Amino acid sequence: MLGLDACELGAQLLELLRLALCARVPLADKEAGPAPPDEALDEAVPEYQAPRKKTMLEIRQLDPDDASLAKHKWALLGPPLPVVDLSLPHVQVTRLTLTSQQAPGPAIMDLTGDLALLKDQVFVLKEGVDYQVKVTFKVNREIVSGLKCLHHTYRGGLRVDRAVHMVGSYGPRAQEYEFTTPVEQAPKGVLVRGPYVVRSLVTDDDRTTHLSWEWGLRVCQDWKD
After folding, report:
1. What is the pLDDT of residue 80?
2. Burial level of 83, CB count in 10 A (0-12/13-18/19+)?
3. Residue 109 CB neighbours (<10 A)
4. How far apart are CA 158 and CA 35, in angstroms?
5. What is the rounded distance in angstroms from the CA atom of residue 219 to the CA atom of residue 105?
6. Which of 7, 122, 151, 216 is the most buried (most CB within 10 A)?
7. First to last CA, the chain
8. pLDDT tens for each residue of the chain, 225 residues long
9. Are 195 and 217 in contact (CB under 8 A)?
10. For the chain, where are the alpha helices, taking DSSP H only?
11. Distance (Å, rounded) from C-alpha 138 to C-alpha 158?
12. Distance between CA 150 and CA 166 in Å, rounded?
């Protein structure tokens, strides 16, 4: 896992600022234990009511005379963006990249075209190697909270693996964001070699599906197989 960089720190501070400005949320009972990572808070805690989200314009206009808050808002939100094309999706997931220091090069999946074509495109993963998945995306218009990426892996119609990666909260900007998962090790052995189908999904705290697609993965003895 890469260390906490400026982008990740900014995303965490951005989420804290949004929650502080929107409302105070009661804490869940500490004795109840943590909720499953893929379970929404409003389902885990029935009495929880999510605060109404404020737009970027509303946040910028809050407490205009508070110089300290204005400084933090400028540092986290940046300058106002030019007019954004409203036809663009809130979150644009543009690429998924499979990387490994032991691979001849990264395997890049373009997510801006016809996603149906990815079903017939197979990505090779050598057994036993350490690898990471990088998700590249862009946020338009408003803050997105609790962004996460899920991967369900199937073989022979049966789900054999499920991964949930918490990406975080991000504000709109002209540049793309990148999120890299922790290092994982590919399975190894004759029983795990062969083709898999991966169904991927990018969603958020509101359970909005920003992108979903299906792609092929093959675990082989060598990258060239």
Report:
1. 60
2. exposed
3. 20
4. 25
5. 16
6. 151
7. 29
8. 334 454 554 555 555 455 444 433 333 333 333 334 443 333 334 454 555 566 655 555 555 666 666 666 555 565 666 566 778 888 999 999 999 999 999 999 999 999 999 988 899 999 999 999 999 999 988 888 899 999 999 999 999 999 999 999 898 888 999 999 999 999 999 999 999 999 999 999 888 999 999 999 999 999 886
9. yes
10. 6-22, 41-44, 56-61, 67-77
11. 33
12. 9
Question: 3-state SS of 64-97?
Answer: CCCHHHHHHHHHHHCCCCCCCCCCCCCEEEEEEE
Look-up of token digits 């509101």: 206
124 class by beta-carbon count within 10 Å (0-12 exposed, 13-18 middle, 19+ buried) = middle
DSSP readout, 43-62?
A: HHSTT--PPPPPPHHHHHHS
- Give me 172's structure tokens: 């709109």
CB atoms within 10 A of CB 33: 8
State both tokens at 100. 């490994």
